[in-house]
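Sequence, please.
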């Protein structure tokens, strides 16, 4: 399984289009795992684009330093920046529509396992009021020693795209600096006239202070290395 560690963002649109290019090529190249820290982006869904407040929402994103992007997969608006890690997983498949729900469950559980390497309590499932709500979101729980013991926050969202002969599974994991994400989403959701609870937006370092993107990336590489070996692809290779 080939590992592509993108060292810097190409920009919101180019990063997204690069994933589409990889998806078109994966039938020839074999399975690919791409990791990178994105430029500040608000990724809107198609339904957001159709709402009367979309232009105002896109303007609010830009005013906060986040580039608006309309993606082909996923639900409502989600925000991410350089304190996040994007995990793009692409594989060929004879029938990529088979196993869609299984992939959501499997890769959600793998992300939870990576966070558990850092002793972060996490689980898969939607929490009430979260942004870009999804059944397979990954959330974390504030530890008993924190100022908000037991409170759950969304840490990651996932989405899939399938094309003839291949699939693409993308995860956005918020690791550092959740406040800018809460702030921009507050303005964006207000413009779209959508309800959500800003207290549900969090980052791994809210639960385990001092955690960095590099810390979480090590856990991600470990669990994906196990996945690659288990399926007979061999170790992750740069």
């Amino acid at each position: 399984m080939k590992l592509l560690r993108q060292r810097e963002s190409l920009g919101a649109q180019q990063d997204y289009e690069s994933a589409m290019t990889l998806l078109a090529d994966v039938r020839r190249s074999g399975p690919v795992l791409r990791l990178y820290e994105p430029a500040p982006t608000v990724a809107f869904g198609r339904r957001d684009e159709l709402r009367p407040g979309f232009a105002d929402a896109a303007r609010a994103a830009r005013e906060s330093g986040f580039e608006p992007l309309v993606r082909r997969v996923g639900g409502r608006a989600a925000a991410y920046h350089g304190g996040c890690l994007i995990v793009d997983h692409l594989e060929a498949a004879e029938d990529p529509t088979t196993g869609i729900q299984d992939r959501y469950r499997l890769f959600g559980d793998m992300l939870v396992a990576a966070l558990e390497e850092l002793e972060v309590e996490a689980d898969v499932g939607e929490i009430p009021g979260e942004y870009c709500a999804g059944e397979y979101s990954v959330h974390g729980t504030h530890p008993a020693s924190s100022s908000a013991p037991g409170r759950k926050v969304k840490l990651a969202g996932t989405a899939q795209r399938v094309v003839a002969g291949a699939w693409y599974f993308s995860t956005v994991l918020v690791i550092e600096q959740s406040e800018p994400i809460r702030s921009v989403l507050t303005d964006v959701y207000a413009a779209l006239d959508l309800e959500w609870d800003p207290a549900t937006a969090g980052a791994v370092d809210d639960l385990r202070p001092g955690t960095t993107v590099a810390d979480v990336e090590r856990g991600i590489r470990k669990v994906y290395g196990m996945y690659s070996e288990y399926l007979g692809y061999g170790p992750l290779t740069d």
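The domain at 2-231 is CATH 3.30.930.10 (BirA Bifunctional Protein; domain 2).
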